What does this fold into?
Amino acid sequence: MNKKGLAILMRTKMRPLSPASNRINQMQFPPPESNNVSSSQNAFSITRRNYDQVRESMHSAISMNKTEILDAALNDFSEGYFVLPIESRRKLLVTLAREYDLSREQVRELMKQYLGLELPSAVDSGHEEEGSFSAFYRIERNLRHSLKPMYEVLFERLNTHPGGLRFLSIMRADILSFLEEENIAALRALDSYLKEKLITWLSPANLQLHLITWDDPASLLEKIVAYEAVHPISNLLDLKRRLGVGRRCFGYLHPAIPGEPLIFIEVALMKTVAQTIQEVLWDDPPIPECEATCALFYSISSTQPGLSGINLGKFLIKRVIDVVRKDMPSISTFATLSPIPGYMSWLLSKLASAERSDSTFNEHLLKPEEESALIDAAGELATGKNGMEVMCKLLASPKYEWTNSAQLMSVLNTPLMRLCARYLLQEKKRGKALDSVANFHLQNGAMVGRLNWMADRSDKGLKQSAGIMVNYIYRVENIEENVQSYFSKGQTQASPDVRIYLEEDHEETKD
It folds into this structure.
């Protein structure tokens, strides 16, 4: 094994720590004081002192203006933040959100002044008009300024401070985790404001597209192994293959966070759109690149939890399409082979609701012939008072015994594919696709191209979607039109091969 392979292997032997955790491990905690107080009291005293110091440095970072003092305050704040235990971080962020918010008294006073002004008459012109509007301009300027919370100063200064952008991402990850536990209005407003800032700072103009190869530093390749979220990289040969012939890996890097992609996408160059993940990950050897006509996106992963909700993937996919089209004119099809992470959760919930006699969601999900065939095929493996109860038991089994029976697989194929089409095309949340991956690709301008039976036989694939995967198709000429129709009307574009499942369902309903 070469040096690089050994370095990657050693770095990834243990579960990777978050950047925040790594920083904590590198910090030296103050030694306990030698006196008669108990260790718990001493620890509390140290924590309290640390909290007060970090809070003071945060205040200085917001209020100070001298460069040398400001740099020291920003360093003290960012370094001190990592020393704090999680509860102290929560307390500090809530303090930041509440005590450094905008002054609503000032906003109200300015609004009263603004509403008290008389609009200039239509006959005013020239210098008279300028004089008439000067009071409006002044109050509007002051109002804009007063609507900015004080913590904006901290965000802006950290963004231009060495390591500050990474720190802001870590801080937002903490904010999001705290909001999951308790919905604090001021903290949610803080998160919203920080998210807007990050969206601006991480615009495509500020990001660098990087083709990740085996020649990159081991420290960068380690990130690919650690953060691959869709199809885990099993070993060094797997990693090398994903970066080798017939494959591409692109990442977005930011100058303020060197050597670490914020998000990366893996691409397979193929003759046709793959129907199973085995074709992409395990079939060997890959085809010669000159024969490829399809660029298949099979995994996209973010490395920064604090950038959740910031759709860098949209820009990355479009940029990669442009690059591949330019470098390889023979590529005419751009598609994905995507998981359907919410399908089984949705379906099992529907089946469980249908089983309850008192449920208001007493929808019959199976056609009569599907139900009878399923009961017959299940035999002793799963019993119940109807086909839906049998189906629920089969799909909920942690060992997925139904996949060992060719007859059960055949019987389940039709209803699972039909209900999956319904889930992807018709099930909505606030007017958008219920499935998170579907929503991601549809809002980026893709269409639902094809459902693939038993495309991912891994435990994860069976648990998420009964092994079904979906191809989303990116037709370059239709991307913007699809985006507009999805956002304005909630329309989901789909091929006839997928829509036919719903038409069959509709015909059954009419009969």
